[in-house]
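Hi support team,

I've been running sequence recovery on a batch of backbones for a student project. Most finish fine, but this one hangs at about 90% for roughly twenty minutes before it completes. I'm not sure whether the input is malformed or the queue is just slow. I've pasted the structure tokens below so you can try to reproduce it. Let me know if you need the job ID as well.

Thanks,
M.K.
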């Protein structure tokens, strides 16, 4: 009986969608339709495959990298230079969406298992992710504010207690400043929450830069409408199955070396500059 119950649990259908991030029925319908027509079914199949046939001893993040067939290119020595204990905030640009989150969790897990990830509440639909995720709701729903306040409190407590936290300070996926999508995508202005975390906990900061970006179609759609941008996220993940992801890891920065005393905006601007300086182009 226990086996049957367990199998029923693992085969229970989990649907991932960004449709909940918008409020009008038409926009939800549009997102779900585009997701179904692109890569959502493929990604859900890979997810169910791992639930049904997990590799013994393999973490969720390692399984995700394996099933997505990602060739993650990074400097192991640079990663190992980060502190293995004590307050740590890992910051990065956000060119892909889901893919950079998976990659960064895969990397940080190799360094220390006590990490948490600030990420979209969409990913909370997967029960396996819930122990790691601190959800952020970017929708306009009334419940979003309460969730985000609670998440900020938990994030601060986690880092203050000596944990590691992964943050994409932009909160949104990078977009080309060119409406035709011909120029390099960059993050929108970074929010100051990561700076507040660092200042209030005295955490060391590890800057990480992801090379590459989403497709030109995604860049163009992002300038047309937020709904189209959300609808294409899973398409972009599916398009990069079997691809390489190149990551540059900077030197860890102790809090004492940062722009202390100049306010959160000055601090986050410095952290952004340190991150983008790793681009090497």
């Amino acid at each position: 009986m226990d086996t049957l119950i367990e199998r029923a649990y693992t085969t229970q259908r989990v649907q991932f969608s960004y449709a909940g991030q918008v409020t009008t029925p038409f926009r939800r319908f549009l997102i779900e339709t585009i997701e179904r027509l692109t890569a959502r079914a493929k990604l859900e199949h890979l997810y169910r495959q791992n639930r049904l046939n997990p590799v013994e001893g393999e973490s969720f993040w390692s399984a995700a990298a394996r099933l997505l067939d990602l060739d993650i290119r990074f400097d192991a020595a640079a990663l190992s230079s980060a502190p293995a204990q004590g307050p740590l905030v890992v910051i990065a640009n956000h060119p892909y969406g889901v893919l950079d989150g998976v990659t960064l969790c895969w990397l940080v897990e190799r360094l220390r298992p006590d990490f948490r990830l600030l990420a979209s509440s969409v990913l909370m639909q997967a029960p396996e992710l819930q122990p790691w995720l601190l959800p952020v709701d970017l929708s306009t729903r009334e419940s979003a504010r309460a969730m985000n306040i609670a998440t900020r409190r938990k994030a601060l407590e986690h880092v203050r207690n000596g944990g590691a936290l992964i943050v994409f300070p932009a909160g949104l996926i990078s977009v080309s400043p060119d409406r035709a999508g011909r120029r390099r995508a960059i993050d929108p202005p970074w929010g100051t929450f990561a700076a507040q975390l660092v200042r209030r906990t005295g955490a060391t900061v590890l800057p990480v830069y992801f090379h590459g970006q989403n497709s030109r179609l995604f860049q163009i759609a992002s300038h047309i409408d937020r709904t189209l941008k959300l609808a294409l996220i899973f398409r972009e993940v599916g398009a990069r199955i079997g691809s390489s992801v190149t990551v540059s890891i900077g030197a860890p920065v102790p809090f004492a070396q940062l722009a202390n005393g100049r306010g959160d905006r000055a601090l986050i601007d410095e952290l952004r500059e340190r991150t983008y300086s790793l681009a090497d182009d």
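--
Follow-up from support: It reproduced on our side and the slowdown came from queue contention, not your input. The two ends are 59 Å apart (CA to CA). No action needed from you.
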